[in-house]
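Notes from hallway chat w/ T.B., transcribed later so I don't forget. T.B. wanted the structure written out for a chain they're using in a teaching module, and asked if we could keep both sequence and structure tokens in one place. Agreed to drop them here.
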Amino acid sequence: MGLRPTRILLIEDRESDYFLTRRMLSTIEGQAFDLEWASSYGAGLQAIHRAAHEVCLLDCKIDDSDGLELLRESQESGCKAPVIILTGMGDYRLDLEAMEMGAADFLVKDQLTATLLERSIRYAIAQARTLEELRRQQDEIRVSELRFRSVVQSASDAIVQTDENARIVFWNKAAEVIFGYREEEVLGFPLELLMPEWRRPDLRLGFERFRTGGKSQLVGKTIELEGLRKDGSDFPLELSLASWTTSEGTSFTAIIRDITERKRGDEMRCAKETAEKANRTTSSFVAIVSHELRTPLHAIIGFTNILLQNGSLDTRDLDFLERILRNAENQLRLIDSVLDLGKVEVGMDVELAFVSLETIVNEVVKQFEGGRRNPDVQIVLCVSPSMPVVLTDPAKLKQVLINLIDNALKFTERGSVTVNVVTSSVDSTPVRIDVIDTGPGIPAARLEEIFEPFPRLETEVTPVGAGSGLGLSISRNLCRLLGYRLQVRSRPGRGSTFSILMPASVRTVPSTAERAGPVQGERDCKRG
């Protein structure tokens, strides 16, 4: 296989010099050359624009024109092939000018030999390749630097670079946002500008230790410090400081993160954990105390019932015993309510099951029909027998209904307490449960207050021993636990309606809410 020839362009207006150059190239051993001759300025310029050559030999004078002008045009056109200037006589000034314009070499014709020409061509090509590689590396460095700056400028953390004296030489946009300084305001200033006064001696000492011994508590670690903004406000920050060394010296890169929100979150989490611990402690204390109180109350209730069965007691004694029994039972209910409230606040498990809502409501109402209550108040139950089963915690839903019905009966002197299960007309799934009374009603300003623990509304008709005021608070919390909402509508003198709203997401048919069909009114009502 033959040698690949080196492509050479000769721009020379004298044919004799062309033959001389071709003869020299043919005598060079171990190499092959492909020589193209351009005998005029214009032909030479066209050949240069084709960029089909590896090296160009250019006569300093051609067609009475300046060969250096052609060199300038070749450089401006982006020609990458090296250019060797040929001249009839040596001229240091011309040589220097040609080299400054980008010529690879400057050869005098009458001193030219084949060996000198071969070496000049070889060096020129090697130099061109080196320069091309250097340009490529510079382009890569430039692209890498632009990419680095793009990443740094888009970072959410402040990135600050300093020299070996800890003076700021670079400042990204996040640093501007965090500290409030523009880059031109901080360049050349020490990094300690970003720290409170009392922190600055430690920072200076850390940099000094690194410069003198190569070790520091700051460099190579991530630490939490206090930062100082331009407006004088301080804030918590996280600082990661790294060092790197070049021929120009040691530099430092600081990555700074504003951890104000993280600290606030930590404080809130600690406060929450402290509050939860206090709640658990309080609930545990209440449970222990309540247990200790229930034991003697059960004894009082038991012995009082035994005494009430004694037929030899007169009316006065029976009245005293009934008062004792009534107060003991009230105290027992209060203790049970306190225990329930403690359980809800700490957190209760929900035991879901598919159950019949009709069955639950009937069972609750029967409990009140069997007990002692005001004969002037009727319990009315309106429930559809065709309702599908619902997914809920039956015990907790019963407790809510018991609290609402019991509350309504206590505050209603005459009339009725109605339990109405409202269903969708589309598929009969329950939409809400209303407990409606004909009691004294509640002022509008106090409708939300009644759901707080121990609100005890004082009205003209408030019954003696009406309760502790915990029932509604417990009921609303239980409804939230089940995914329901407990609301109240009331007008003074017209009674109150407490409604358990059952969203579609906790009912049996998810699409019911999306259809949002009309609801059925009261039906199948029973009076007790």
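Follow-up for T.B.: Residues 265-347 form a domain with the Helix Hairpins fold (CATH 1.10.287.130). Might be a good example for the class.
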